[in-house]
Design goal:
single chain, alpha+beta, Penicillin-binding protein 2a (Domain 2), Beta-lactamase, 2 domains, five-stranded antiparallel β-sheet
């Protein structure tokens, strides 16, 4: 009986062990197999997570591929307030951090007392500050960290700053091409792991290199940095001499609409844009409007030639320098009397130009000027572009508008509108759409988006274009544009000197002086415009702007390998010729 009881209890004990083993095995199987993914994911969730990182902002490049704007890696300082020891002297820690980062103590101590898990201490550190923070981390400041970011750099400093614009601290475009091209330039997102400490607080890791499949997009411009430098140097030479309130220089390829150079004065450094006011940072090439003066007369002649209303040798009576048209009295700077049609433009007669406009008529004059793009944006792709001011013909004042507009009064244009229109005068009558953005390209040179040259419309016959160019050549050789004469190239162009409107009336002391040139005039390649607002002296365009246009044309055409129209002999060659 006793033996039987022992066997029973042994069997029961053994059965219990077997059941316990089976239970443990089942539980282990559930944990290790069935619930393995759930437990793994939970562990990852409490110890790490993903953080979204953006790749560097794309570059802005000139047409040769040289960088005009790029992003460089810099570091910012952050802190984790909850990781600061309760026993630590927060005020002393804050003083140390404030001294190293040159921050106000009051602002720094607030970050230490914050209930947030993460706070920025200072964005975009200098190299010195970065080194000091690294040393503090080694010295026990475990609650601070360095976070890699990107900061925008502009190698050209003040060059092209009005065109390129600038970005904010978070690398978003705020002005210029940085703003209009932000959709392409803005960095792309990708994810990396971010670990947590035992209390679940996030601790940022240093940025990893972005995956290769994340493609940075760069913006390729039509701007040529060499021609840009030529234009800047020539314009600033005139600025130093005549001290204008502002100035603009433009170089335009008449055959494809490319803007090769765009200069606006006053200058600013977009690496330090916060140091300047908004007026200084205006891109006057697209958003400054002004009365173009006599540079506008060429369009009345082009329209009248195109309609077959005038001939070059046709005589026009300009009188003794004063002429009355209804209630309107027109004056010339000097008496021209009876001169040929071409001499009206060469001598820049207001009276002769008005008589040609009257022959053309208000409706046709208005339509031609609209076809030339006045009163409309060029849609170049730069922020703040103005329409200009050009009233519809229904709002023209009888006797006044038909005589004022042809000589560049009662109308306001932007510099980019004027070079675009002169491009059509020079290239055979085709209005090209101006472009400053050429392509969107990847880092490896793959073209993502392209803007090929675009013809908007034909505004003149080819022969009309040639006739206007022949007269513009004589303007430089014989007329008001003599200061643009070159020993290398045949240049055509037109001077402009307009009175500024001050307190509702034309000023006798404040002027806008300008000159627009076409070269080589017998086989045109480029249009160059220089405008000076309120220069010293009388502000004649032939004096304050023409010399700069000549210099820009000579340097640019030689750089573009355009053969000179004239042969310059050395002293030895001259002696041999004699």
């Amino acid at each position: 009986m006793k033996q039987h009881n022992i066997s029973f209890w042994c069997s029961l004990y053994l059965a219990g062990l077997i059941l316990l083993f089976i239970g443990c095995f089942v539980k282990a199987w559930v944990l290790q197999v069935k619930q393995f993914k759930d437990h793994t994911n939970y562990k990852k969730k409490i110890t790490s997570s993903y953080i979204t990182i953006r790749t560097p902002r794309g570059k802005i490049l000139d047409q040769r591929g040289d960088p005009l704007a790029l992003s460089v890696r810099v570091y910012s300082c952050c802190m984790y307030p909850q990781m600061v020891s309760k026993d630590a002297d927060k005020r002393q820690l804050a003083r140390t951090l404030s001294r190293v980062l040159h921050l106000p103590f009051n602002k720094t101590i607030k970050k230490f007392n914050s209930t947030s898990k993460f706070r920025w201490v200072k964005r975009i550190l200098t190299k010195y500050e970065e080194q000091k923070i690294r040393q503090l981390k080694k010295d026990g400041f475990g609650f601070i960290d360095l976070v890699a970011e990107y900061k925008r750099r502009y190698p050209g400093s003040k060059s092209l700053s009005h065109v390129i614009g600038y970005t904010g601290v978070d690398d978003q475009g705020l002005a210029g091409l940085e703003l209009t091209c932000n959709q392409w330039l803005s960095g792309k997102s990708y994810k990396i792991y971010m670990r947590r400490d035992n209390r679940g607080n996030k601790i940022l890791q240093q940025l990893e290199e972005p995956p290769k499949q994340v493609r940075t997009k760069n913006v390729l411009l039509t701007i040529d940095s060499v021609i840009q430098t030529f234009t800047e140097d020539a314009l600033y030479m005139m600025v130093e001499k005549f001290r204008p309130k502002s100035a603009v220089g433009l170089v335009y390829n008449i055959h494809n609409g490319d803007v090769l150079a765009m200069v606006s004065y006053p200058r600013f450094d977009n690496n330090r844009y916060k140091d300047y006011n908004m007026e200084t940072m205006r891109n006057r090439a697209v958003n400054a409007i002004y009365e173009p003066g006599s540079t506008f007369k060429s369009f009345t002649f082009a329209a009248a030639f195109n309609e077959g209303l005038i001939k070059e040798d046709e005589m026009i009576d300009c009188g003794p320098g004063i002429w009355k048209f209804g209630p309107r009295t027109l004056r010339d700077s000097h008496a021209c009397h009876t001169i040929s049609t071409e001499n009206v433009l060469i001598k820049s007669s207001n009276i002769g130009t008005a008589k040609i406009a009257i022959k053309l008529g208000e409706q046709k004059l208005f339509q031609y000027l609209r076809d030339f793009g006045f009163g409309q944006k060029t849609h170049l792709g730069l922020t703040g572009e103005e329409y200009g001011i050009f009233n519809h013909v229904d709002k023209w004042t009888n006797h006044y508008s038909i005589t004022s507009i042809p000589m560049g009064q009662e109308i306001n244009v932007t510099p980019i509108q004027l070079v675009k229109a002169y491009g059509a005068l020079a290239n055979g009558g085709l209005m090209m759409k101006p472009r400053i953005i050429k392509q969107i390209v990847s880092e490896d040179g793959f073209v993502i988006q392209d803007w090929p040259p675009e013809i908007e419309k034909r505004v003149l016959k080819v022969e009309t274009s040639k006739r206007v160019l022949r007269i513009l050549k004589k303007v430089v050789e014989e007329g008001t544009g003599k200061n643009a004469r070159s020993d290398l190239y045949d240049i055509g162009g037109k001077t402009g000197t307009s009175q500024k409107i001050v307190n509702g009336a034309y000023s006798k002391t404040q002027h806008v002086g300008s000159f627009i040139g076409i070269a080589p005039i017998n086989n045109p390649k480029i249009v160059v415009l220089v405008v000076l607002d309120d220069p010293l002296g009388k502000g004649y365009g032939g004096t304050v702007a023409a010399p700069a246009v000549k210099l820009i044309i000579e340097n640019s055409l030689q750089y573009l390998n355009v053969p000179p129209d004239k042969i310059i002999l050395s002293e030895n060659e001259i002696e041999r010729e004699q």
